[in-house]
């Protein structure tokens, strides 16, 4: 039983962390985006402004996403490259929209159900 207590405390801590928008260092993402930009007006300042706006929107809407959506999108936006609030917001909104779709056209065993 004593070994269970640290697991419960750690589990509760993880839930609390998941309830808040993660803290992301988006500056490397902006530098990479500007380096790859094809439009001359795309600069680090514009990218950072987009990131700040996305973070603000996430802070207001974070509770509207399910814990699974929040976790999935946080992982996706932080692996494979620099993290981005814009990517996190886009993923969360798309996950929410996909969950709201009717089940029409859902596949089962490689066949489309109608």
Our estimate of the beta-strand percent is: under 5%
Mean pLDDT: 81
Which class best fits the helix and strand makeup? mainly alpha
- The sequence of SSEs as H and E is HHHHHEE
User: What strand order characterises the main sheet?
Assistant: 1-2
Q: Count the DSSP helices.
A: 5
- Would you report the number of β strands? 2
Q: Unreliable stretches, pLDDT < 50, 5 or more residues?
A: 4-17
Query: Cα-atom Rg, whole angstroms?
Result: 18 Å
Helix percent reads 55-70%
Overall, the morphology is globular
Largest sheet, strands/sense/barrel? 2 strands, antiparallel
Describe this structure in words.
- With 114 residues, the protein is mainly alpha-helical.
- The protein is built from five helices and two strands; from the N terminus they run αααααββ.
- β1 and β2 form a beta hairpin.
